[in-house]
Amino acid sequence: SQTIHQWPATLVQPVGSPLSLECTVEGTSNPNLYWYRQAAGRGLQLLFYSVGIGQISSEVPQNLSASRPQDRQFILSSKKLLLSDSGFYLCAKGTGEKLFFGSGTQLSVL
Amino acid sequence: AQKVTQAQTEISVVEKEDVTLDCVYETRDTTYYLFWYKQPPSGELVFLIRRNSFDEQNEISGRYSWNFQKSTSSFNFTITASQVVDSAVYFCALSAGGADGLTFGKGTHLIIQP
Fold first, then answer.
1. HEC letters along A7-73
2. pLDDT, tens only, B53-112
3. Yes or no, beta carbons of B43 and A34 under 8 Å apart
C-alpha cells in the first residue's frame, strides 16, 4: 500500500500563529518521508526529508521545522507563521527512485 | 547540484491537437532517474513515468510518449490527440536515487480547450 494521509486539506491561519501539519503513511516500515512546498507559480521545493524516526534533514533554512515521532508519522510545524509560508504542502514517501504523494494541504496565511 | 528546467510555463491547445512538453535537466551524476508527474486541479501528484539514465529507449503508453535524449539532456513528453482531461500541471523531475528525494522543475500548465 502506498496510502498517504494528509490533513487538513485546507487551512487558513493568521500571521504569527503556530502550525502543525500531519502526515501518516501506510505500507512498509521505515519509509523515507518528505515534505514539499508548492508556492504559487513555482515548482515543488523540498523542505525536509527523513530516513528514520527522529532523523530530519533540512533543505531550506526557514521558520518551519519537521519531526518524525513515529515510523510512519511526519509532522511539519512552525511556531510563528509568515505570509510567505502560504502554499500547497505535500507529504511524500519513497526514495529517489520513485515518490508517492499525499493529497496535500493548502495553507493560506493572512 | 541538480536542476530541472521546464521553459514552457503555460501551453494552450485545442482538443485533439498533439502537444509536447519540454524538460531539460542538469546533473553531474552518471546514474540518475527522470520522472514526469501530473497534477490535476485536485492537487495530488500522479506519477506518470520513470526512466533511468542508462535506458534511452523512447516509451509510448497509449496517447503518451516520452523522448529521452542524453546528448541534449532532455526528457520531453508528448500527448497525442489531446483531451480536455489532460488539462493539468505537469512536472518533470530528476533524482540521483538517494534519500534526498526528487528535484522538480517549475511545471508546465497545460490547458486543453474543447
1. ECCEEEECCCCCEEEEEEECCCCCCCEEEEEECCCCCEEEEEEEEECCEEEECCCCCEEEEEEECCE
2. 998 888 888 999 999 999 999 999 999 999 999 999 999 999 988 888 899 999 999 999
3. no
